Structure formats: C-alpha cells, structure tokens
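Problem 12. The chain below contains 621 residues. Write out its predicted structure in token notation.
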Amino acid sequence: MPEEPQTDPRRRFNTTERVALYLAADGHCTRCAAELQPSWHADHMTPHSLGGATDVLNGQALCPACNLKKGNTVAKSAREWQTHARDLFLSQPKRDFTVAATPGAGKTWFSLALAKLLVDEGTAQRVIVVVPTDALRQQWADAAEQAGLSLMPVSGPDDYEKAGYDGCVVTYAQAARGVGASLLRRVTRRPTVALLDEIHHAGEQRAWGDGLTDALEHAVHRICLTGTPWRKDSTSPIPFVTYDTDGRVVVDFAYEYGEAVSDGVCRRIEFHAYDGEARWADCGKISSSALGSNLAEVDVSAVLDTVLQPNQPWMPALLSQADKALDELRSEVPDAGGLVVAHEMYHARAYAEILKHVTGQEPTVVLSDDPEAKDNIDRFRDSTSKWLVAVKMVSEGVDIPRLAVGVYATKTRTPLFFRQVVGRFVRIRKDEEFNARLYIPAVPALMDHARAIEEELRHQLAVEFERERKAREDAGYGQVAFDFDRQPLSATEATFDRAILNGDEVTPEEIERATAWCRSNGIPTTFATNVARGHRSMEQNGVEVISPEAVPVVAVPRHRRERMLRGEVDTLAGKVAYRMNMPKKDFNYWLRKEGFPPRAKATIEDLERMEAFLVKRLGEL
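Solution.
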C-alpha cells in the first residue's frame, strides 16, 4: 500500500510568505496574469492534502477564479473541529454536553449533524432546538432541512408535535414558561435530543432556568452551545451546565477564535481604536476627559454618552472613516457590507441619516420595535447595499457573511456582548482572504477585550509554530445606572489611536508609513496593518526598511511593462463589461468597433490608449 503523504501541520501561509508570493508574481495571478486584488489566494502548488508544504517554494499567487478552477477552496477541510467534537461526544455520551465554538465556526451545522446521527441510530426520535430570538427560529429550521431534518418553527400550540416533522424550533421565552413549557415536557416523553443555542440566554430571567429544567427534564441528551463563555450569575442560574471554582462555565469541547483563524474557518479582524475629547456637565459640575484615560466607571459612561451623541463631531468623523474603508474594500469585493451597532434607537436613526449624507445611499435600519425587522435583515443579507444600522438585534446568531467593516457605537462594555459583535465579522467565504475591521472607542475596557481576542490568535499561532518546528525536527528537518443629571456638552472629532492585530498594537505613524510602502511596491493598502507589523519585526532584527522616497527610479523592462499593462487593461475591461452588463465576447467586439486592436496583438502604446479609454468609461458608468 502506498504511504499516506506527510501533511505540513501549518495549512495557511503567514503574512511574510504572502507578501513574498505577491512580489514574486509582480502583483499578478500566476495563471491568468490578472492584477491581484485584496481577495487573492496564496495557493499550494502541490496540494496541502497531498503533503504539499506551506512554504514559498511550494506557493503561488492566484486570483480566486483560477484557484477555484483548480479545485481547492478556502474552507474545503475547515470543519475538522466538528468531527473531533462529535467523536468526543460519542466516546463518552453525556446527557448534558457543552460546546463553546467561536462565532462563525459552524456550531449550527455541528449540532444538527449530531442530532441527525442520534436520530438515525435510534437514540432519539425527536429533535428540539431552543434559540434566543424569533428571527433565529426560521434560520435554524432552514439549516436543519439541509442536514436532513424537518423542524417546525413554533408559532402556535399545534406546532410542537406537528405530523411530518422531526421536531420543532422554539425560543427560550416559549420553552421556559406557560403552555410552551408544558407541551415540550409532554413531547419529550418520546426519546428527544435538545439543542440549546447560546445557552446563556436561559439566565436572562430567573424563572426561565427553572422552567427550562422542567420542560426538558426527560430529554435523553441536552447539547448546549455557546460562542461566548460566561461567568456564573447567582441571581439567574443557567441549567444543564457546570462551573469551575472561579465561577467560569466548564465546557466539554472548545474551539476558540485563534484556532478558527489558523484553520481558515474564520476571518482575521483588525481593531481600530479611535480617541477623542469629551466635555459634560454632571450636577452642575463641568468635566472633560479623553476616551483613552483611566477613568472611574461612571466617568467612562459619561465620556461615551458624549462622544456617541449624533450631534457631536466624533461619530460623523468615525462613520466617515469606516465608510472610506468599506469603499476601498468594495472596489474589489463589491457586496462587502458594514454594520453599526448603536446603543439607543434614536441613535440608530440619527447614525443612518449621517451615513445617508456621507454615502448618498439609504442604510438599512433594524430596530426591535419594527415589525419588519427580520425581513429587513433578510433583505440586507441578500442585497449588495452598504450599511446596516442596528441596536442589539444583529449582535448574536444572525448570519450575514458579507459583513466586513463594523462600528461599535454602544456603551455596553461586557466581554460577552463585545465578542458577540465581533462574531458578526469573522465569517469567511471561500473566495475571500482579507481582514475584517472593527472601529471601537479607545476606552480601556474595550481595548482590553480586543487585546484578549487577539491574544488568543497570537497564542494559537505560537502553538502552530511550535507544532511545525517539532514536526520538522521529527522528520529530520456591566450595566451602568442612568444619571438624569448628566448632560453631554461637546466632543472632538474621532482621531485614530491605534490598530490591534494578532495581539500587536500598531500606531498611526506605522500605519501611515506602511501604507506609503504598499503603494510604492504595488501592494494593496488593505495589507497595511500586516506590513507595519512586518516592518517593526525587521527593524527589531536590524534589517533596514527602505522608505518609498529612498527607492531609486529604475526603468521597467519593456516586456514586464507590457505584461503589467495587459493585466491592468484586462481588469479594467472586466469591470467596465460588468457595469455595462455585457458578455465578454460582445464587449471585446465593442472595443474593436471603438478602434482598438485585439488585446493579444496590442502594442504597449495600444494598451496605454486602451487603459485611458477604459478608465474614462468606468468613471462615466
């Protein structure tokens, strides 16, 4: 029998290797010579699954289209954690089993696939899913159908045990009280597996925990899911879970953000913190402070109260910066979307007006008192519009993979809520490899949460590095009370304070220098934060970083210039054809009618003329 190929323990190319591959390819796809966009793929020439090393010698820069034609996708083998969690459950089947997996990692699919297995083998006859919100009932029912289970989203008493269904989906409010709790208790007398999504919601009201315990008393298995581990709250006990001596929930299987990014399951996220000055009056006393100052809790709340006011300069400046970042990304990922998480409903409406003024487009606003809130979320998910503004309805469970830029404009500073918001931006799609970006106020609590998340990633990357090194050696190579006497007075514009990525903090000066270096070397500025970290590492190791101004002007060989021009023209032609809604063949014929030769026969002068024409045409469309 042939030997199994030895697989490199590290699957993803690191930032240094990606930059090397980009430069080696002159910023163009190795296969089709198209100009590489921020969503380009670092590809294994010999597939990783066949033993190919994650090394620049085995790497190539490909556009997404060429990589997908080759047959590999970003997330093809990205769900190994689900197999490990399932095997652990089956090896020691406990009645209560808790899984903590970072948002976007696939908890829904894991639990439904496990439930289907338990039904198929006869351990269970019915499946009950309990979710936090009404909107998630339909979402889980749709996902269950893909897993081979027909579940009824409960809207009335007859839906709990409806004929022709394998079970039902209910909210915690339905399951924990009244008729719903009684009907669930009756239904679960038949062997039932219960899936409890974001189980910490069972502690929102003290009576819910008791009601849920009674309703699901007879379930043969209760599988609890969470993306955000929490600490014990003695006032609202959460059923079916246990705690350690420090009061932290004990999980049976954990899959954290660092692992998910390392495996290619989740997207990296950059935290861009913005500072500013605020003035407010409290019981007649006027106070002022910067966001980044070490303040008492009540003063942090006052500072945030002030800067988050829509009529102060801070929020319009921050929204403008976020929109610029989204525009830059949308030039290559046209359906990329942004999310603003507001603290109050009137804030959300005002932020939407600011964004409308900045962008010229009407944002989607999602508020809890709007009966069309769920439909608005669904429409935004399936559209290509830019901005969604919400209060808390999109903080958890809602799946909108195209979200890429976020603004955290709420006073809520708990780790649980912060991680829930972060989870909206880390879902990855198979043809994208860019960092998401979350704009946050530079208050210490939020900065600490951001550092903690990035430290998880740094730790996992260190684990992967050590695992790789060993493999080579082995082979021989809180809630704040309202203060009705406090009055926000004024706030300055938001000013960039620092970026946080992979546990490192990058200053505005480093970002500015890295952005200039990217432009001078033909690298998309989307990678500026990564490049800044690379420059810092080089300087620490005594390697000189050549500034853009110090780079001598060197004549580009004619053949290389022609290749670059041809790639630029091909990219422009594709964009113009798309805007004109014209098939490629018809578009090429149209170009001929405009007096241009076939691109394959075009000279450099022809290509330069064609480029100028297409740039002008693109601006007119």
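Discussion. Residues 470 and 477 are 9 Å apart (CA to CA). Students who got a different answer should revisit the alignment rule from Section 12.3.
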